[in-house]
Amino acid sequence: MSLTAAQCRAARALVGISQEGLAEASKVAKATIANFETGRRAPYDRTLDDMRAALEAAGVEFIPENGGGAGVRLRKADL
Fold first, then answer.
1. What does 32-67 look like in DSSP terms, one character per residue?
2. CATH number for domain 5-74, candidates 3.40.630.30, 1.10.260.40, 2.60.120.260, 1.10.150.240
3. Quick one: which of 9, 13, 47, 71 has the fewest CB in 10 Å?
4. Rg over CA atoms, the chain
5. How many CB atoms lie within 10 A of CB 20?
6. What is the pLDDT tens value at each position of the chain, 79 positions in all?
């Protein structure tokens, strides 16, 4: 499953990570993230994978397209 710009913005909001924070965690340039989120640039698949992995490590779970649209949610905490 690929990462969309809307999912990226929503995921960052869920875990309270700025573009700068995601850039640091994913080793992706902040300008790349900003351009992706505003639709000005489509990053390479590997770059999207790095961003997604960093967001998942922060607690985001990505929901695949299931008729209602792809989305994001917080991962359920282990008790």
1. HHHHHHTTS----HHHHHHHHHHHHHTTEEEE--SS
2. 1.10.260.40
3. 13
4. 12
5. 11
6. 689 999 999 999 999 999 999 999 999 999 999 999 999 999 999 999 999 999 999 999 999 887 778 899 998 876 5
Where in the chain are the domains? 5-74
Which among 69, 12, 65 has a CA at the least distance from the CA of 37?
12
- Beta-bridge partner residues of 72: 62
Nearest of 11, 60, 61 to residue 36 by alpha carbon: 11
Give the long-range contacts of residues 15-22, CB within 8 A, separation 24 or more.
Answer: 15/55, 15/58, 15/59, 15/60, 15/74, 17/55, 17/58, 22/51, 22/54, 22/55
